[in-house]
Amino acid sequence: MKRLSAIGYRPGRIVVLFVLLISAPLTPVFAQSQDVVEDAAPAAIPGLVVAEDSAAVEFPDGITFTLDASTTDPIAELELMYRAPGLETFSVELPPFEEGTTDLTIEHPIDLRAGELPPGIDINYHWRITEDDGDIVETPEQTILWGDDRYTWTPLSGPNVTVYTYDADPAFQQEILDSAERTITSLAESYSVELEQPVRIWAYAGKDDLYGALAPNSEPWIAGAAYPGLHMIMAILPPGDHGEVKRVVSHEISHQVLHQATDNPFNSPPQWLDEGLATYWQESGRDRFYSYALEIAATGEVPPLRTLNGNFPYDRDGATAAYSFSLSAVMYILDTWGDEGMAKLLATFEEGITYEDAVQQGLGISFDELDRQWREDLIADAQQFGAAGSTRFGDDGGGASPWPSLGQGLALAAESLILGLVVLIAVIAGGISVLRARRRAHSDEDEEGELRWGEWPAGLEPSGVPENVHGQRGW
Questions:
Q1: Which tens digits make up the pLDDT trace of 73-129?
Q2: pLDDT value at residue 391
Q3: Regarding the domain with residue range 31-146, which homologous superfamily does it belong to in the CATH classification?
Q4: Region for residue 40 given its phi and psi (left: phi exceeds 0; alpha: psi -120 to 50; beta: otherwise)
Q5: E strand spans, 303-444
Q6: Which residues are CB-contacts of 276 (< 8 A; sequence separation ≥ 6)?
């Protein structure tokens, strides 16, 4: 088997065909062998007779694809092409076969244990056959759900989101869906940002359950992952934990909406804007971050805003400060320019322009001027109101620490390490691709866009736990 790569692209906005029943429970997933796709009556393809074209999920190992077909002319090349919906390029497998034959009986497994494609997404696939005379025939594209079939998942769908649970009562599942849909509606009404493709939320009841869905040797503190480029979230939402729903769902949905609304080949919003908005739209936990920002600002030590454009620090204090300052920067923009100003600012990022140009066009001032005004305003607020017990949102009673109670916190994943490895692998794969003039790819977003979050490693726990410190741009 050969596996080839092609890089140098960004996933475009391709509409996913998705059947949604508004607020109505559906048949449990995997209960009816939906992890197997069969083509009982394939359409007629000139020069190709297909007896079987199927795929079967073998979680957590991968997917086995089966093709039983015959052609009129001898076969020179056989390719299995697959991708997640929304990606422009395919991953390509070259299953072994007898060159020159006209009959194919192929059973080809794809190993997905390394996390190349996370469970919980659809996989579109088809076969491409090149004959000796250069003619190419392809089978129709089919779709299979690459999912965690250890559990019998029950989906609940709204206009934009489908929530999957296996150990939660209908009321709790509805609460998750309502929080997600409510956030999408609020963001659209406030800033005219739309969710163009539906999002899936897979709600795991506990850490051990989720860990079984992650790649082998994943860090034991990981407590979730999200993939904006694949429109999917995996989260630990223990049944009945209403606080986690308020904290996690709205925050993560904000990232999904902003990603879709600003997606372009050149740039993405700065981290402080993405995280600040996500924290602002949480339904709990915001006052703790606001108070923490005031506490630091009271010392006069407010960093320049552009230092928060990229990745946040990994240590507890640095991460907490980054999220707190990001929230306060978003609050300042909304207090000064209102929803209309924020909407205009967000609209500029879809054009892929620089941060300086985006701020100038969106807010009418330079980035440096925004930075100066925000820091002066935050320090003035800190001196006037102090930090202890300061509230703006009334959702958690304020308090100087953003860490709530022991054992519930989340910690930053090693984002830079993940991205660094992705870039290195991409460069190597790209070289191979050029030399072989072949194409196999998986989305930049499904790795670079992967967001992970988790608990603090044993022995490194803070005195409390973080309210919402997580990897990259998600919980």
A1: 999 999 999 999 878 889 999 999 999 999 999 999 999 988 889 999 999 999 999
A2: 74
A3: Immunoglobulins (2.60.40.10)
A4: alpha
A5: 411-412
A6: 326, 327, 328, 329, 330, 331
Angstrom distance (rounded) from CA 79 to CA 326: 47
389-423 pLDDT, tens digit each: 567 888 765 554 554 432 333 433 333 333 334 33
Bridge partners for 25 per DSSP:
156
Place of tokens 């079984």: 212
Angle (deg, nearest 10), helices 286-297 and 367-385: 90
C-alpha distances in Å from residue 372, one per residue of 76, 146, 207, 377: 65, 49, 43, 9
The answer to whether 452 and 225 are in contact (CB under 8 A) is: yes
Structural element, H or E, at residue 401: none
Q: Return the beta strands (E) in 207-317 as ranges.
A: 222-227, 232-236
How sure is the predictor about 221, in pLDDT bands with cuts at 50, 70 and 90? low
What DSSP line would sit under 154-189, residue for residue? Answer: EEEE-SSEEEEESSS-HHHHHHHHHHHHHHHHHHHH
Residue 47 backbone zone (phi > 0: left; psi -120 to 50: alpha; other: beta): left
Cβ partners under 8 Å of residue 203, min gap 6: 163, 164, 165, 168, 173, 176, 235, 236, 237
Strands 62-71 and 103-111: what pairing?
A: antiparallel
Domain boundaries, the chain: 31-146, 154-454
Distance of alpha carbon 359 from alpha carbon 66, whole angstroms: 53
- Measured distance CA(94)–CA(2) in Å, rounded: 5
Six token digits for residue 156: 């609940």
Question: Could you count the other beta carbons within 10 Å of the beta carbon of residue 462?
Answer: 17
Kindly report the backbone phi and psi dihedral angles of residue 53, in degrees, each rounded to the nearest multiple of 5, phi listed first: -140, 100
| Sequence-distant (≥ 6) Cβ neighbours of residue 299 within 8 angstroms | none
Q: Given this model, what pLDDT does residue 234 score?
A: 94
Q: Are 139 and 65 in contact (CB under 8 A)?
A: no
Q: Is domain 154-454 annotated with CATH 3.40.1110.10?
A: no
